[in-house]
């Protein structure tokens, strides 16, 4: 089982997100107060700290110093478990992963790794998420 290490929102797309201690995930909408929320397939972004292992040595300092560009940063969940179609219980909420990475890779800062290894999806069960909450991959049977 993993845990939430950071929660981040921004009120404008394309800007770094500010860290907050808790968020409200709204079913079918995304993270309350975040510019990416809405009726589409990338309502929420998720990045596992473990993805930093995939950053080339010449980019790691830049990536680590960059501001947050993902909504939820987690640790302790294997990237191999976070596949398209996976359900992730984070605090009270459940996120369904629909995309891995973005169509176009970014070459600078934290977006470098988020654009390659970030998970993007929708909120299928709303609820509160706090820093320190547990994170786990669940089966559809568990959710239903």
UniProtKB/TrEMBL annotation:
Record-linked InterPro entries: MoCF_Sase_C, MOSC_domain, Pyrv_Knase-like_insert_dom_sf
A family per Pfam: MOSC
UniProt xrefs under PROSITE patterns: MOSC
MOSC domain segment(s): 18-138
Database matches in PANTHER family: METAL-SULFUR CLUSTER BIOSYNTHESIS PROTEINS YUAD-RELATED, MOSC DOMAIN-CONTAINING PROTEIN
Protein name: Molybdenum cofactor sulfurase
Species whose genome carries this gene: Clostridium gelidum
UniProt lineage: Bacteria, Bacillati, Bacillota, Clostridia, Eubacteriales
